[in-house]
């Protein structure tokens, strides 16, 4: 039963993911077997066996809570599946572990400082598991009797009969309970819960056995099963909130409004310290579990030296998440300095990280990925076309080939064909330039463009910034 | 699976634990039925003002006892029943985790946490957008 609900939650998560990161919507996990050995093609993952195996080891350590406060770097050329591995890791962690994904450049915002943005991201990646416990009376209403006193003065009294599948009992009601029953418009055949501590009555819906009471029912009528078991239940619900969410309630009086407007602004460090103290207290009393989650920073070379030194410090905090970073840079300048360093990351931070390299895909792997993407985008492609597309992917890039899938399927639909053929792929290949051909074209006709800087340094530099 | 006897023993252990949990569940239902019965009885005794003796069922025998004594008995029974239900509920948590362990599943997360206070929960509910 529990596993079914867990699976459902996973599905819900996936849907939100699809909308955010379309390019990796086909990833369902890391594609490892129970022994953490990678399968060749599984859960949307293809190839990168070594990197996936390494990610699997990281995953196992995260699950055991072992590597909190450490960092992992995924390094490799563009289009070698770094983000895919991070997404797979997130899926494999399950719904209970917080996973925050951000791009390195997200921290540059006018509304808050860089370190504030980083702190928020870090605190979004730490979960606090807490439990809510309520004593409730849950049952189907069999009968409500209300007696008005004959004199007209004094409160009303009444009786409420509730039943579950196992038993039936009668409660005497005071005037206050009768008032809330009338306010909630409770009638015979409704399934209700009464909170024992507050006396709050809520209506869950109408019982299925009463479904035929009326021919016409409103669309909002919800039918539920008659509750099972005992009438007086103890309901325990386990919630997972992130530290950032707890920060938000306490930083403002109108807490939840701030959460929905999306503008949380900066949160004072005193508030955070208070929250840390409170959560620490809860943990000691056995009221809360801390779940170190995962913070994924894509394009980490976009962070500058200040952020790196901040991260260095933040990783040492006792409540630190696992930070996974991805970069596609080789030896390059650290942003904000003139120093060159591998991956554009300072050496001291690099020293703290576990580095997982990814290598370029081989041709059969590329074909497999393109096939998966075709399925994901609901595009029927003929075997020949797929071969051509694979060749394109080898010669240009995987991303370009994936973009051709969508465009080619549009072209084939225009021609009223059910399957994408070689012609369609050729057509879009000629319509849309890949990065290489575009550069070639620019080089050829450079003198006809405006503001020509007579080639050389500037143009090359600008190119480096735009092509990411 | 190579060793049928061992597998059988394993299955037996699982079934035993599961059966135990189911038995506990029906025990809680029976106890709650008794609790509700007692409550109804107490309420009826309170309403009945003019007599000082009342009929009381002890098993299959009906006895006439003073109202005060009947009240005392019922109250005492209520306390015992509530304590018993609480005990079974907390034991059941351990049993469920044992069962999951036998089935090679992870324990239910957060099952053994202590609940938050009402005020604390209200604050948390604000974040989750639930009822306050």
Automatic annotation (TrEMBL), chain A:
Gene3D superfamilies: 1.10.8.60, P-loop containing nucleotide triphosphate hydrolases, RuvB-like helicase, domain II
Catalytic activity field: ATP + H2O = ADP + phosphate + H(+)
GO molecular function, one term: transcription coregulator activity
GO cellular component, one term: nucleus
InterPro entries: AAA+_ATPase (IPR003593), P-loop_NTPase (IPR027417), RuvB-like (IPR027238), RuvB-like_C (IPR041048), RuvBL1/2_DNA/RNA_bd_dom (IPR042487), TIP49_P-loop (IPR010339)
The entry's keywords: ATP-binding, Chromatin regulator, DNA damage, DNA repair, Helicase, Hydrolase, Nucleotide-binding, Nucleus, Repressor, Transcription, Transcription regulation
UniProt keyword Ribosomal protein, yes or no: no
Main location: nucleus
Family as reported in the entry's similarity comment: Belongs to the RuvB family.
Role according to the record: Proposed core component of the chromatin remodeling Ino80 complex which is involved in transcriptional regulation, DNA replication and probably DNA repair.
Protein name as catalogued: RuvB-like helicase
Organism, scientific name: Laodelphax striatellus (Small brown planthopper)
Automatic annotation (TrEMBL), chain B:
Keyword Chaperone found: yes
Keywords, ordered alphabetically: Chaperone, Cytoplasm
Cellular component GO terms, alphabetical: cytoplasm
Subcellular location(s) of the protein: Cytoplasm
Endoplasmic reticulum found in the keyword field: no
Stated name of the protein: Uncharacterized protein
Organism: Laodelphax striatellus (Small brown planthopper)
């Amino acid at each position: 039963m529990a596993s079914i609900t867990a699976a459902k939650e996973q599905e819900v998560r996936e849907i939100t993911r699809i909308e955010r990161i379309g390019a990796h919507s086909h990833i369902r996990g890391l594609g490892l077997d129970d022994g953490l050995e990678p399968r060749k093609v599984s859960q949307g993952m293809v190839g990168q066996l070594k990197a996936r195996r390494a990610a699997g080891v990281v995953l196992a350590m995260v699950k055991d809570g072992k590597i909190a406060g450490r960092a992992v770097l995924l390094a490799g050329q563009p289009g070698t599946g770094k983000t895919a591995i991070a997404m797979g890791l997130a899926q494999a962690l399950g719904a209970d572990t917080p996973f925050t994904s951000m791009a390195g450049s997200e921290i540059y915002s006018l509304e808050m400082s860089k370190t504030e943005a980083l702190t928020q991201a870090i605190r979004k990646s730490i979960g606090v598991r807490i439990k809510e416990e309520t004593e409730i009376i849950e049952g189907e209403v069999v009968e409500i009797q209300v007696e008005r006193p004959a004199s007209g003065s004094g409160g009303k009294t009444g009786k409420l009969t509730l039943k579950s599948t196992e038993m039936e009992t009668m409660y005497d009601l005071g005037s206050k309970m009768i008032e809330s029953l009338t306010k909630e418009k409770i009638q015979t055949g409704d399934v209700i819960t009464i909170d024992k501590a507050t006396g709050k009555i809520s209506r869950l819906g109408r019982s299925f056995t009463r479904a035929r009471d009326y021919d016409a029912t409103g669309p909002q009528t919800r039918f539920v099963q008659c509750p099972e078991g005992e009438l007086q239940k103890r309901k325990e619900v386990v919630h997972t909130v992130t530290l950032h969410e707890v920060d938000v309630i306490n930083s403002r009086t109108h807490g939840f409004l701030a959460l929905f407007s999306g503008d949380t602004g900066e949160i004072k460090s005193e508030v955070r310290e208070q929250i840390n103290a409170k959560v620490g207290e809860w943990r000691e009393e056995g009221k809360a579990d801390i779940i170190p989650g995962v913070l994924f920073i894509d394009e980490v070379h976009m962070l500058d030296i200040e952020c790196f030194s901040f991260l260095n410090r933040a990783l040492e905090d006792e409540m630190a998440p696992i930070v996974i970073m991805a970069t596609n840079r080789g030896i390059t300048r650290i942003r904000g300095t003139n120093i060159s360093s591998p991956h554009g990351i300072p050496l001291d931070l690099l020293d703290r990280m576990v580095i997982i390299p990814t290598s370029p895909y081989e041709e059969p792997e590329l074909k497999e990925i393109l096939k998966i993407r075709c399925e994901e985008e609901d595009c029927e492609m003929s075997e020949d076309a797929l071969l051509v597309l694979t060749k394109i992917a080898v010669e240009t890039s995987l991303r370009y080939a994936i973009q051709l899938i969508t465009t080619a399927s549009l072209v084939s639909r225009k021609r009223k064909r059910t399957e994408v053929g070689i012609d369609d792929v050729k057509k879009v290949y000629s319509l849309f330039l890949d990065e290489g051909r575009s550069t070639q074209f620019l080089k050829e006709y450079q003198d006809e463009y405006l503001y020509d800087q007579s080639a050389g340094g500037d143009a090359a530099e600008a190119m480096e910034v735009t092509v990411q | 699976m190579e060793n049928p006897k061992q597998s059988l023993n394993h299955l037996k252990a699982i079934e035993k634990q599961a059966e135990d949990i189911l038995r506990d569940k029906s025990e809680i239902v029976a106890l709650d039925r008794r609790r509700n019965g007692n409550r109804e009885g107490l309420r009826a005794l309170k309403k009945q003002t003019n007599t000082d003796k009342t009929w009381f069922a002890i098993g299959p025998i009906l006895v006439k006892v003073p109202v005060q004594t009947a009240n005392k008995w019922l109250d005492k029974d209520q306390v015992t029943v509530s304590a018993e239900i609480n005990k079974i509920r907390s034991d059941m948590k351990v049993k469920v985790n044992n069962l999951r362990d036998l089935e090679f599943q992870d324990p239910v997360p957060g099952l053994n946490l202590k609940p938050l206070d009402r005020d604390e929960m209200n604050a948390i509910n604000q974040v989750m957008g639930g009822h306050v």
